[in-house]
Amino acid sequence: MKKLELPNGIVLEEVEEGLLVRQGDEAYVARDWCLTAPVIELVETAMAAGLHWMIRTDHPRRNARWPNRRGVVYLAFSPSEHQQWALAIDTIRPASGDFGHGVFNGKYHEQFLTLDLPFTFEKRNKGAGHLVVAREHVLPTLTALRGFDHRVLDLGRTERSHAGFTTEYDIQRAILNQWAETPFATRHAVVQDEYPVDGGLNSRRIDVLAQDPQSGDWLVIEIKRAEANADAVRQVEDYLLALGQKDEFSFGKLEGVLIAERISATVREAAQRAGIAAYEIEWPVTLRRVT
Q: Fewest 10 Å CB contacts: which of 35, 86, 214, 224?
């Protein structure tokens, strides 16, 4: 049986059921996987890209870990123990020893577009917006990941070292991280951030989508750093219209929210006419309704 030692205490070892993945005191079986040349190239490329974790805090689930010999069907990689996964591959072809397509975390969407990396949206989990990359592009995409900003995978988990918002991402992270402190938390629970509206290659994305678990009402939150303009109001209106045409949103009201550091009187009036709630935000997450 083959064995491969990798950075950060990762050891891959062939066992009867597949590939035993060990990292520290934890382990799991990747069922039917084996240490073929393509698989070795895959994991070494992932390591070179900085994805040094194959076992995370809650992934795989505890009941799927060793000594459960059935394990899981995938290999997955992450830049840290506590971040979301960056890449998962759940297809291995035992006859050829080659793996199938890769699924990259949908949080990388904007960076994929910036670098013009080829992908399609995952069909079986459309709401998550994860990015499917064909087999022939997996390794080049992993190489491109070396320059990625992996902070998108720890949304809502990290703390800033200084006060103030630098990007819309900072506001989004602050709201999600301190959701219980927002006025929305009394009724709504977060469903997803960066929710893909259209499902196409260049899908528009809702900053935060939340739902009232009692009534089924939906909350669509659009975030702007600095001052919001009238286009932001139209953007929320467009999102509400698009979701209203989807079957999964046919129950419950659709409500829009615009959040920005500054909202002028003109934009407030436009939001009020459109029935959209507008809030100004101050660091760290003080929200003041202005409509």
A: 214
